[in-house]
Amino acid sequence: METATYTIDATDRTLGRVASEAANALLGKRSVHFVKNRALPMKVVIENASKLNLPARRTEGKVYTRYTGYRAGLREMTMAEMLAKKGIAAVVKKTVDGMIPRNKLRAPRMKNLIVNE
User: Which domains does the chain have, with CATH numbers?
Assistant: First the structure.
């Protein structure tokens, strides 16, 4: 089985719609060779990520949290801060990552995601 490439154009689309389509393709559900217990060699390329439709209400309202492991180590970052610090690719990858099941196949599937700005 050779590597297939699935391209998504993100121009004027919302983040969630693009991310759910990418997650669906990464899971292999768009392939005739779909198997639940295997990460298929399906590359997903998201084009024009910088042209996503991100309203100001979403960028200032969405808060990403993470825990450092230390006492009082809860860190928060808004989407606007993440866009300024890490770029749109990190936001898209984090959104798609949240839609992939938490198991051993998550890391190999996420390696097949390519986000082009």
Answer: 4-54+87-115 (3.90.1180.10)
